[in-house]
Structures are given as structure tokens and as C-alpha cells.
Design goal:
about 290 residues, alpha/beta, 5-stranded parallel sheet, 12 helices, about 15% strand, elongated
């Protein structure tokens, strides 16, 4: 009796993640997909960065009333840097004395991992939802309050403005930043393959990776072709609404799982790809272009 063909046999999936990419790739390959790994960006810790120490001390001295944590990873990197530079005790005092709000379960887990409790978690695991929660709990008025905001590699100007517009003094720390990760030059390969209609889906676990992919397409003169590929049936799988936002701004319709986790993203994608193809873009050829 012949072995059953894996559900994604013959499918080609682009993976743009750097961190935890091995887990994604292994899960897709177990299902039979061929993976083009094109890490667009990587998280670059700033543990020895004097700027992180300076912004941390500014926050500690201000004794914030509220601290908003946007990622669990960011809190862990912040604490690691604090331990390396000798201000971990001050960080814990700051968090213990403030009302700490978290964006999602990973942030809550990171807070509890430090032996602390949070004051609340956003309903939709977005920074906008986190700010909504804080404003709702304070009647929309943060006058006279100091808010500490842990950024997640990007300066979320719109949400910071909402806090300052409500009267808050906002101090920020950035425990990590995004940096180019395409050491092997695979992002242009993915763009060309996708633009030629030879990719079935691309996965995104961070919004900046969307910008990086389309910026590369722009440099290659393939921006419209990449858009056409997504509009023609190539799937964009995202880990959640924050990652999906730049795709929506491009007029695309990305997959967003009900649970904002990588495993849920991969299951949703596998289910979608296991259905009969409805591609309307360029026909694929036997040449994989690599």
C-alpha cells in the first residue's frame, strides 16, 4: 500500500521570520511543503547599549505611575540587559511600584516570571488595545501621570500620541531593535519566485518583515508583480492583527488566526493550502528559479 502523500506536497512557502524560523520550517516540511527561508529582519538585543541604560534610569527616576509592556520578549531582554549592567533591582522596584499593563499573554507570563502581577491585559493583544484599556480605566484622563512604555523594536508614534494627548508624560525604553537578517541574499530570491507565481504562501510573524519584503520588491522593480501575486491567490499568513496591518494597508486580505500564535498561524495556513488551489496569477513552471 502506497504511503499517503503529505497534505502540502508540491506547495512552496516563503518564511520571512528569523527568530524561531526553525520551528516554522520543520512544521511546514513535515507537511510536505518546500520552504524558501528568506529572513527579512532579525531582533537585535541592545543589552550593552548605553542608550538603553540611560532611558531605563530616566524612567526609574521618574517613578512612573503606569508601565505598559508591549511584548514579553521585550521585558525579558530588558531584564537580561538590566542584570548585565547592574540595574535589575531598580527595574524590579520600578515595576513593583507601578501599575503594569501588558499587551498579551506572553507579556503577562514574563511579568509573572519576575514574581510580579500585572494590572490588566488588552482584549485583542494589540498596542492600540492596550492603550484603549489604560484610557478606559482612567476615564480617558492621564493628566499628571507618568507612563513608562516598553517599545517592541518600532516607535509606535500613534499610540504614544494618544497617551500624551490624554495628558500623560511618556517615557520609553527599547530593549531590542530590528536589523537586516538576509545574510544569504534569500529575500530577493523569494520576491522573484513569488512575483513569477511559483510560491503558494508567505508567512509573516512581524509587521516590519512585510515592509522589508515589499521594499526589496521595490528595489528589484517587482513591487506591482508581488502585489499581483498576493491578489492572484498567493496567501499571506500572519501571526496576528499587528502583523497583518501593513498587508491590509496594501489592500490585501491576509490570514489571521483566532489565536495569535505561530502554531495557530501554521494550522490555518496548512488548512487553506490543503484545499484545491484557486491561483489566478502567473502559472508556475518546473524551473524553481534558484
Amino acid at each position: 500500500m502506497a504511503a499517503e502523500e503529505p497534505p502540502l506536497a508540491g506547495r512552496v512557502v516563503g518564511v520571512t521570520a528569523h527568530r524561531r524560523s526553525e520551528d516554522q520550517i520543520a512544521a511546514l516540511e513535515r507537511r510536505g511543503a518546500r520552504v524558501i527561508h528568506a529572513p527579512a529582519l532579525k531582533v537585535e538585543p541592545v543589552g550593552e547599549d548605553a542608550g538603553l541604560a540611560a532611558s531605563s534610569w530616566a524612567m526609574f527616576e521618574a517613578r512612573p505611575d503606569l508601565v505598559l509592556l508591549t511584548t514579553g520578549y521585550g521585558l525579558r531582554r530588558w531584564h537580561d540587559a538590566a542584570e548585565a549592567q547592574g540595574f535589575d533591582a531598580d527595574l524590579l522596584v520600578c515595576l513593583r511600584e507601578a501599575a503594569v499593563y501588558v499587551r498579551g499573554p506572553k507579556g503577562r507570563g514574563a511579568v509573572r516570571g519576575l514574581g510580579l502581577e500585572d494590572a490588566g491585559m488588552s482584549a485583542d493583544e494589540t498596542t492600540a488595545g492596550l492603550v484603549d484599556l489604560v484610557l478606559a480605566e482612567h476615564g480617558g484622563d492621564l493628566s499628571g501621570r507618568t507612563v513608562g512604555l516598553q517599545l517592541h523594536g518600532l516607535a509606535d508614534v500613534a499610540q504614544r500620541r494618544r497617551l500624551t494627548d490624554a495628558g500623560a508624560t511618556v517615557l520609553t525604553v527599547t530593549p531590542y531593535r530590528w536589523a537586516p537578517a538576509d545574510d544569504a541574499g534569500q529575500v530577493p530570491v523569494l520576491v522573484r519566485e513569488a512575483a513569477a507565481g511559483r510560491v503558494d504562501a508567505v508567512t509573516f510573524t512581524a509587521a516590519p518583515a512585510v515592509d522589508a519584503l515589499f521594499s526589496t520588491a521595490e528595489e528589484l522593480g517587482l513591487h506591482e508583480e508581488l502585489l499581483a501575486a498576493f491578489r492572484g491567490g498567493m496567501l499571506a499568513a500572519t501571526v496576528g492583527p499587528v502583523t497583518a496591518a501593513p498587508l491590509l494597508e496594501l489592500g490585501l486580505d491576509p490570514l489571521v488566526p483566532e489565536r495569535f500564535r505561530m502554531g495557530a498561524m501554521l494550522k490555518q495556513l496548512a488548512d487553506a493550502l490543503a484545499r484545491p488551489a484557486t491561483r489566478t496569477g502567473p502559472e508556475r513552471t518546473d524551473d524553481d528559479g534558484q
